[in-house]
Amino acid sequence: MLVVDMSTVPKKFVIKYATATVLLFTQPVNLRPFRAHCQMDKEQAQNIWKSLSSAVTEIYNKNASLLSFEELYRNAYNLVLHKHGDMLYEGVQDTVYTRLRSVAEQVAVCPDNQLLQEVCEQWKQHQVTMIMVRDILMYMDRTLGSVSSQLLHNQYLRYVPQNKKMAVYDLGLWAFRETIARHGQVRDRLRKLLLENIRDERLGRLIDHNCMKCALYMLSELGIDSSNVYEEEFEVYFLKETCQFYRSESHLFLSQNTCPDYLKKVESRICEEMQRVPNYLHANTRPKLRHIVETELISAHTPALIESKKSGFCDLLRQSEEKMADITRMYALCFQVPATLDLLRSALHEHVRAAGQLLLNDEMKDPVVLLRSLLALREKYDNVVRNAFRGENIAQKKVKEAFESVINADTRCASSLVAYIDELMRSGLKGAAEGEVECELEKVIIIFRYLHDKDVFEVLYKQYLAKRLLNQRSISSEAERQMLVKLKRECGYQYTTKLEGMITDIRFSRGAMEKYNTHRDEKKMNEVDVKTARAASCDIDVTMLTAGYWPIHPAIPCVVPDVAASASESFKNFYLKQHTGRKLTWLTSSGTAELKAIFSDVAKHELTVSTYQMCILILFNALDFGEELTMQSITDATKIPHNDLRRHLISLCTPKYRILLKRSKGKGFSSNDKLRVNNSFASKLRRVRVPLVAMKELSTHPNSSHSVPAAIEEDRRHLCEATVVRIMKARKQAQHNDLIAEVTRQLSQRFHPQPQFIKKCIESLLEREYLERNASDARLYVYLA
Asked: What helix, strand, coil percent values describe the chain, rounded to 5?
């Protein structure tokens, strides 16, 4: 066998063949004979080990600077290479154990106030020592105990796993754990000191974070051979101590302080505990520690914090404007424990519902004031959800459900909403900018969305809208149209068809009156007969109402004065010429008139009265001074219905507007009661508007009843039956539950029918043979054509 010395031969060419590698050189090659391998005997190995043992001792004595680590590494390498790895390993093990036993005795006698620091110092020194020893014995950790064919194939397996032994550094950890960390006089004392330090820090005292971190990280590193020393020796006891500490502290603090103070304390404690992890605890302790703290400080006391009458959650909600920060803090803490969030949301729902019910319990509250209170309540708790509850969907749904339960308790909120809109349209939006109008109407729509009885709202809104339009009391036609657009967007075009038709009638009437006035003025210039002159002496303003759109029931027209009758006839002739095929019916029960009244030489007024009052007062023009008329004679002359006549006469005899004087005393009227003109009537105003006294309205009036009016109930029944027939006509047959669900879905835009109500409608249709039950399945309905 030849060995080529490559150090003196320059490489030129390398030619590789299948069986050998041939080197070609341009200069002569110097060849040296192969030197046979010499095996190290046991005595040589012992001498090398002694030098290594002495070196380990010097490292422990902090004299490492005097050593040659290259030489030490070569010695350890030679021992392993010549199959003396077992002697090296066992020698290192004995040396480390011997040294640590003496250190353990030294640590064991330390007083408690020095034990933690001494353990940390010995641990740091041991770490440094073992790192140096590991570096010296790196080859032993890395390679096999004997050099075999693996070396030739560059397979560097570990000596330690090959012989089922620990690595050198792990050996040092295991030795430190068994001799010092679990020493009989160190183990329990060390744990006690660690727990006492943490308790002192919780009580506000300063502790040495460096020692704590060193000791706890020592325990975590000592967890080798599948033994978690940190958990067994410290974490279990620490978590138990934490649980007991916060259980006791939370009960005591909550009993002596308010809810906001407790929440601040909890927030501070959680931050302190979480900061304890990077300061000295192991990272794996964080989730366990957080769970215990949240359980003891939040979960255990959430019901008490909600129900507490002393500044509890409900009290904070009542003062949400000032206590928003506290509500936000409570939500943020409960958010960390999802199980408590349901309690918080349920409490919010109950509180909002109770607050709304409290507003409804005031029967005497004005409808407009009630609606404003509801809007303020909604805005208040909407801010709570948006700011404190971070706008979460579940909380929004809870508040919505609470308002729905309040607003749909009866029909009072529907009528109050209509009255509030009426107040806005009459005066509330006066001078408001476009953006402000939009904002106010959007608030109204939000309440409208909560309503289930939208048909009740429609009936009432139609009545109020009719009064505004006919009396010209709406301050903005644009606002009226915007409101209808929003209602159409919510409920569909059918919901607002009649309402839009009413506004269209008003617009059409204005155009028609302009044409009529132009026609009248032209005719006045050409005709001078008596009849035309009389008609021209009375100005008339007519509003054409489409039958079916307006909530006004036709009545038998009364007998109007000749002047008014002539003007009415003139307009009727003009209108029918313009629109053939139409029919006009005069509604004398509605409308107003302006009269010039001369009571004396100094008492001259312009009276604004109803059409019926005009007819009554004109009768007195034909009488002498002081002459009287009976109620019966007025009835015969005007043909005004008895109840309406009585109401209008009372209005003319009120103390404030006593235009007529009644001979008999008392508020009642009989057919024989006599009346005369009050010639001494006087008022500071030149224009006097005589209002009608209040009368008992229909059952749809806001303040008359909280139940659904009978007329609306009847309309609901017809609508429900029509919906059932429409569905069955399309499907031909349907199961009972499916039919109930579909009818409920289709009617929900107008009202929410109860299943029992739908069932009665189905029974009625069965009796009238619109439907029949299937012969084999009684719950299956079949449509009959």
From this structure: 65, 5, 30
